[in-house]
Design a protein that fits this description.
This protein has 789 residues and is mainly beta. The longest helix has 25 residues.
């Protein structure tokens, strides 16, 4: 272990001891902190019922089954008499899930302002972003695992883009239209499939309403006459909520805005939203290109401008015990690709996605079945990669390659009623999942080449079944046993062989003839977990998982240049199943003045699939021994690997100050990934250590936070360079208040200022393929305002 990492561990341990020492003084303060009510749905199909406050007047349209009605009524009454609304900035810690979950609630989403999921999660413990094109194309990376091992879902269905097929491809889920993000850190394949062997990022919004909207009741006017107020369950004329979200940013001269509408009445709820954002090239602290002096530079990252917009409309119908709803969503994005090649060729991606989603839930009045839920979705995605064929000829601008993804998915889950098995109360949920995907990537450049299209075309079908069992032994001890079996059929075409050296331009027979490939796999996975409540509101957890992953199409069928990674990718149709054996332990505390989460994990991969750089270099049609050409030759290969690491984050409310509460927070994360021969797995995040102070009351929240990333020198033998450390200093102040509707008609307002990278540091992301040519944004200030009507 390097001296820097030892120092980081010592500092992290000292911070933990300091928090423990200060906890006694904090516990002596009786000032309560109202914690946010976080509902997590991503990790498990077993959903715990949450009571929701009633509104008056209202129309009862989803009565609970008869055997649950008394309990539901009591819960609603208790909820209605709950404490005041939770304050901003409280660290959400999830203690009732067997998986390790990071939650980004709505109020933090609004303050953060990340334009992509990768930007949003960039500094969270155990998570970062790929930062290929900051602000446009940044995919979440969890514990050093990315693309083919991290699933991205929206409202229970796959994101449906092409971000797992190329690091330059955007994720068609915009945080501006999202209400909550849940990140399962660690294997999530049991529910979402083998493509989530490293974790899953789940974004939720109200595009398919799952409850009738709630509105504040209008005051009842009696004018002094002896009349009765209307009954609580009397028919309602309907309900309408509108929210606007806007912000401006100095670092990229960016402007974004969105409007969301939720309306309901007569058992029907309707949602509509529209959003858009535009930025110019963003400011950076210094010259961005490490190994290419003399390139044009004007203080901004060349070729980094973005533009995106989207809209959605959906509706749900509510009936006795359930609902069914559907939504259609359009996402469009036009963004430039930074880097020397991107700037020279003026490379940009013009992407469009149309997505249709249907979901529903039914809670029958039955003794055995608690709930039946289903999701159905279809996606039509297409993007054109546009640029100059010849950087010296502006007339050569045009489409260089087109990617398409047509995908359909369906999932149904049945949650059974809990039953007493004497030794434990057992709750079981069954699930079935199926999907079909067709991918193409043709290029108009040299269409007759056997290397045209990278992996064009290919398709795959998948079907799976899974079961989750939760065993409640006592109120303080619970266990989970889960399993999944999946079958994947893939079809594509690859050359019969691709030697290390060839040139198809001069000798088309230097590679083998096109050969159809039809591999199929049957991954099987299982897990067991334990949650134990401890004194002082502590919760301990331990989980063991065995997870198998089927290779993805790009890993099997690739055969050509991949500009995003500066590689000439050669797939391997003989790849086998990748296996991960994982152990994870955690200790958490979600209530009281000290809230924290501590996790450690160890994962052994058998047959870890990766791009192995051979040391040869290539161009569009040829490869040669050694350096000299612009692309590194990469063959998809398998080796055994070990990932291990730890994560910690905490908040400590120290005491009252000026009518509010002030406190300190800190975080730490480390991941170490090596092959079994001791060499390093490429592109792994650095050790990070951070902390800050905050102050909040019922209206205000302010915070200043510093994250230090240590230098990353644990790099691959070929094709990777060391990455310098950095200090990321951010600060924010937010004000939230209720308004009288006479003030522009709004009932609630949130405004704020956020300062990012206040030290204006050169920040390079060690996991990014473009880190030696692309700097993260420099010093910037963002102002935002959200209004609810």
């Amino acid at each position: 272990m390097t001296l820097q990492k030892k120092r980081a561990l010592h500092i992290g341990g000292a911070s933990w001891l300091l928090l423990g020492a200060m906890n006694g003084a904090a516990l002596a303060d009786d000032t309560p902190t109202q914690l946010p009510d976080i509902t997590v749905t991503a990790p498990s199909p077993i959903q715990r019922h949450r009571a929701t406050p009633t509104r008056t007047p209202t129309r009862a349209v989803r009565a609970a089954p008869s055997h649950n009605r008394e309990r539901a009524t009591a819960e609603q009454q208790a909820s209605a008499a709950a404490a005041p609304a939770p304050q901003q900035g409280v660290l959400p810690v999830v203690t009732d899930q067997f998986a390790t979950v990071t939650v980004i609630p709505n109020e933090e989403l609004r303050r953060s302002g990340g334009a992509t999921l990768g930007d949003l999660l960039f500094s969270k413990p155990g998570i970062t972003g790929s930062s290929f094109a900051p602000g446009a194309s940044s995919r979440p990376i969890i514990r050093g695992l990315d693309v083919n091992r991290v699933g991205i879902v929206e409202n229970g269905l796959g994101g449906g883009g092409a971000s797992d097929l190329g690091e330059d491809h955007f994720v068609p889920i915009d945080p501006l239209s999202t209400n909550q993000v849940e990140v399962v850190r660690g294997p999530a394949a049991l529910r979402y499939g083998s493509t989530s062997i490293g974790g899953v990022v789940s974004a939720t919004n109200n595009r398919i309403p799952d409850a009738m909207p709630t509105c504040a009741a209008a005051p009842f006017q009696s004018y002094g006459l002896p009349v009765k107020a209307p009954l609580a369950d009397a028919g309602s004329p309907g309900c309408l909520n509108v929210e606007t979200r806007t912000s401006v940013s100095s670092v990229n001269r960016g402007v974004d805005g969105g409007m969301l509408l939720d309306a309901g009445g007569n058992n029907v709820a309707v949602h509509a939203d529209v959003y858009g954002r535009t930025t110019s090239d963003y400011s950076i602290p210094s010259y961005p290109y490490l190994f290419a002096p003399g390139q044009p530079f004007n203080g901004r990252q060349p070729n980094s401008a973005t533009q995106s917009d989207g809209a959605s409309v959906g509706a749900s119908y509510f009936f006795q015990g359930g609902f069914i709803g559907a939504a259609i969503t359009q996402n469009d994005s036009l963004y430039h690709i930074p880097g020397i090649g991107g700037a020279d060729h003026q490379t940009r991606i013009d992407a469009h996605q149309t997505k249709i989603a249907v979901k529903g839930e039914y809670r029958p009045d039955a003794a055995a079945i608690d709930a039946v839920r289903f999701w159905v979705g279809a996606t039509d995605y297409r993007h054109n990669e546009i640029g100059l064929a010849d950087p010296t000829d502006p007339l050569s601008d045009g489409v260089r390659q087109t990617f398409t993804n047509k995908e359909q998915e369906a999932r149904v889950e049945v949650q059974m009623m809990p039953f007493n098995a004497r030794f434990a109360t057992v709750t079981t949920a069954f699930g079935l999942q199926g999907g079909h995907q067709e991918l193409t990537a043709p290029s108009p450049d040299d269409p007759t080449s056997p290397l045209n299209g990278l992996w064009d075309p290919n398709k795959n079908n998948r079907v799976a079944g899974y079961v989750f069992n939760e065993l409640k032994f006592t109120d303080t001890t619970k266990a989970q046993i889960a399993g999944r079996i999946e079958h994947v059929d893939l079809s594509g075409t690859t050359p019969a062989f691709i030697p290390p050296v060839f040139d198809v331009a001069t000798d088309p027979a230097s590679i083998g003839p096109a050969t159809p490939q039809n591999p199929n796999f049957t991954p099987k996975s299982g897990s067991i977990g334990l949650i134990q409540n401890l004194p002082w509101d502590l919760v301990a957890s331990a989980t063991a998982q065995y997870v198998e992953r089927a290779p993805k199409p790009a890993e099997l069928f690739s055969r050509g240049p991949h500009d995003a990674t500066s590689t000439f990718d050669i797939g391997n149709p003989n790849l086998g199943i990748e296996t991960a054996k994982s152990i994870e332990i955690g200790l958490r505390r979600a209530t009281g003045p000290l809230r924290f989460e501590l996790t450690g994990y160890y994962t052994k991969f058998d047959g870890f699939i990766f791009r192995r750089l051979t040391g040869n270099t290539c161009d569009e049609s040829a490869c040669q021994l050694g350096p000299g050409l612009e692309l590194n030759q990469a063959r998809y290969s398998q080796r055994d690997a070990i990932f291990r690491g730890a994560e910690f984050q905490s908040q400590l409310d120290i005491g009252p100050l000026n009518g509010g509460i002030w406190g300190i927070e800190n975080q730490f994360d480390v991941v170490r990934a090596t092959f079994t021969d001791g060499t390093n797995v490429p592109r792994i995040p650095p050790v990070r250590l951070g902390g800050g102070v905050y102050w909040r009351d019922s209206n205000w929240f302010s915070r200043i936070n510093l994250v230090h990333a240590f230098a990353q020198n644990d790099i691959a033998v070929i094709g990777e360079t060391p990455t310098a450390g950095y200090n990321l200093l951010n600060a924010e102040v937010t004000y939230n208040t209720k308004l009288t509707q006479s003030w522009i008609g709004a009932r609630e307002m949130t405004i704020g200022l956020v300062g990012n990278n206040l030290l204006n540091q050169n920040i390079r992301n060690s996991v990014s393929y473009t880190k030696d040519e692309v700097l993260m944004a420099g010093l910037g200030v963002r102002a935002f305002a959200n209004l609810k009507f």
